[in-house]
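May I ask for whichever protein you like with its backbone structure tokens?
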Amino acid sequence: MEQMTPVLQAQLPPEMETPLPLPGVAPLDANGWLRRDDAYAGQMRCRRALLDSTRDAVLWGDGSAAAHEALEAALAILPDLGFERTADRVRCPDGQQIQLDPGAPLLTLGRLIQEDICVLEKHGDEHVLTGAVLCFPASWSLAEKVGKPLIKIHDPVASYDSSIARRVQRLFDGVQPGRPLWRFNRLHYDAPDLFQPRPSNQRRIAPDAASAGFTRAERQCILRLPRTGAVLFSIHTYVVKNAPAA
């Protein structure tokens, strides 16, 4: 999908302007893993178009018990974010009416919220990606990550060595229901496109910070679902235009 008109936020949230204290992960309010910002309408147009036109590239593993619980958890929060729910549909802040599909919870989530959602479940000693709605990949491909454990999901990230893998696994093991965690990254891009998949054998060459046209940042939250015990990894994407170099 070609994104013709850039969808941009006016600015990054203040808490994402400076690094978090070490180890770079912080606690979050129970419902803080979802948010709505000034780019909601534009991002949702992109998300719904992707789910209509390239669904196989952005949706996988829908319909599990964990996916159903993820939708239930989100629906409980949405009224506080300006959504209106009836028995079988949700009226979104952009005026769109979204039918609740009990057979496709991740697809439904993808039409409702700005966040991409990855579902990870414990298989043996590792958490494995068992489902996702991922409309805004930042230079990676969902198809290459499905069914893989955390260390393989991050391959070929050079800094993600065995030591970091153990720490991340402990983080996923330790997160408790009602006590989510969050972190963020900031990346430099020449183009503002939200949908930027890339196979692992095609490494992205990041532009220099001083010359990059855009900053892309991801607010990433980790939360435990109480009933299934699955872990959700939510990604809220921000893209802001950089000021011209002096």
